[in-house]
Amino acid sequence: MAKEQMQVLNALDVAKTQWYHFTAIIIAGMGFFTDAYDLFCISLVTKLLGRIYYHVDGAAKPGSLPPNVSAAVNGVAFCGTLTGQLFFGWLGDKLGRKKVYGMTLMMMVICSVGSGLSFGHTPKTVMVTLCFFRFWLGFGIGGDYPLSATIMSEYSNKKTRGAFIAAVFAMQGFGILAGGIFAIIVSAAFNAMYDAPSYAVDPIRSTVPQADYIWRIIVMVGALPAAMTYYSRTKMPETARYTALVAKNTAKAAADMSKVLQVEIQAEPEPEKAKSYGLFSKEFLHRHGLHLLGTASTWFLLDIAFYSQNLFQKDIFSAVGWIPAAQTMNAIEEVYKIARAQTLIALCSTVPGYWFTVAFIDRIGRFKIQLMGFFFMTVFMFALAIPYDYWTHKDHRIGFVALYSLTFFFANFGPNATTFVVPAEIFPARFRSTCHGISSAAGKLGAMVGAFGFLYLAQNKDKTKTDAGYPAGIGVKNSLLLLGVVNILGFLFTFLVPEANGKSLEEMSGENEEEAGTSRELEQSHSNNRTVPVA
After folding, report:
1. Any idea where the Major facilitator superfamily (MFS) profile domain is (predicted)?
2. What does the pLDDT average to over 473-491?
3. Class of the CATH domain delimited by 16-270+279-515
4. Tens of pLDDT along 521-532?
5. Distances (CA, A) of 422 to 135, 261, 439, 501
C-alpha cells in the first residue's frame, strides 16, 4: 500500500490552472526561446561568414567556410550544451533548482553578447573567439534543459502537467521564428542602405564591408529575451517537491506554496528519513534503468533525424530552387533568402507542431503522441527518399517542400516535444534533474551525429559535385533512407517509456511506496522494542 501524499504536494496536484502557472511558463519558456534563437541563428549566417572571411580571388563561387571550420562553428555549441546538461542537471539535484537557474541564464546573456563581439580581423581569430563564446553559450543553454523541465513539472498540477511542460518547450518554435524574422528585417534594411552587385558581376563589391555587422547583430540580439526574465527567475520560490522531498523541509515547502497558490496549507511533521537508494544503484536500475534507457535512446534517435534535417535545410532549399545559386546574389541578399525560407518552414510546420502537442498531450497521452510522431516521420522520410529524383524536378518542388514540412510537423507534434516532457515526470525528485540531464545529453549526442555525420554523408557521390573541401558522400537520397531507419528504431525504443498522463509525480517515480516502506519498517521496529522479554 502506498502512503498518503503530503498535503503540500497534493495541493499542487489538484490546484486549478492559475496565473502563476502561466508566469512560470513564460519565465521558463524565455530560456528556451533564447536557446532556439541562439542555436539556430548560426545556420542563417554561416554562408555570410564564408563570404566575408574565406573569399578566394578569381573563384567562380563565393567563399564558404572550410569543412572543419563549419563543423566547429555549428558544433561547438552542441558540445557545450551536452556538457551543460550533465553538469547543471546534477547540480540542480544537489543545490536545488532555483539556485542554479539564474546562473544558466546569466551565462546565456554574457556569451550571446560575446559571440557577436568576436574580435580580430583575421579569419582564424574571429572563428576561434566565436567558437569559444559559443561553447560557453551552449553550456548555459544545456543547463536550461533539465532545470526548466523539472521546475515546470514540479510546479504543475496533475491534469495539465504535460501541456505546461510542452508549452515551455514550444517556446523554441517562437525562438526559431524570431531568429528568422529578425534576420529578414536586418538583411532587408542593410540591403536597402548598401546597394551591392551580385557575386557574378563583381565578386569583391558583392560583399559590402558593413555585412560584417549583420551576423554580429543577429547573434547578439539573442541575449535580450533572456536578460528580460533574469529578475523574475531569481524571485521564483524553490519548488515544493525539492524542498519537501529532497531538502526534507516540509514547513518551508508549505509556506512557499501557500503564497504561490494563495491558499492555507498546513505544515506537516518532517518525513522520516527514507532508506533512499542512490543513482545507478542496483535498486535504481531495477526500478528506473529501463526507463532511463528509453528516455535517453528515443531522444538520441530523434535528434539524429531532427538536427540533420535542420542543418541540410538550406541545401535542400537550394536543391529545390527556393534559394537561387549563390553567385547570382550579393552577400546580404543571400542572408535574406535563407532566413525567408527558414521562417516559412517554421511558420508552416515547426510552430504549429509544437502547439498541437500542447493541445493534445494530456488528452491522447505522451506515449501515443511519440509513437505517432516517429511513425509519420518514417513514412515521410521514405516518401522523400524513394522517389528523390522525381522531387528534384522543377515542377515538383512544392510537393517536396510540403512533405519536408510534414516531417517537421510530426517531429514537433511527436517525439521532439514528448522526449522533453517525459524524463521530467517519471524519476524520483532527488534524481529528476540529473536523469533529465542524462536523457537530453543523449539527445545532443544524437544532434552531433545528425549534424556532422550527415554534413559529410549528404554530399554528392560524385567527388566533382561536392561542396568545397568535402569528400564524396552517399548523397541526399541515401541519407534520407538512413534517417527513415533511425526513426523506425525510435518507434521501437518508445515501448520502454511508461505513460505518465494523469498520474502524480510521486506515483510515477515510486516515492510514495518508498515512504510507505520506510514507515512500515519504523512501525515494525517500534513494536519490536515494545515487546520486552520476560525474565
Report:
1. 24-502
2. 89
3. mainly alpha
4. 545 555 555 444
5. 27, 25, 10, 10
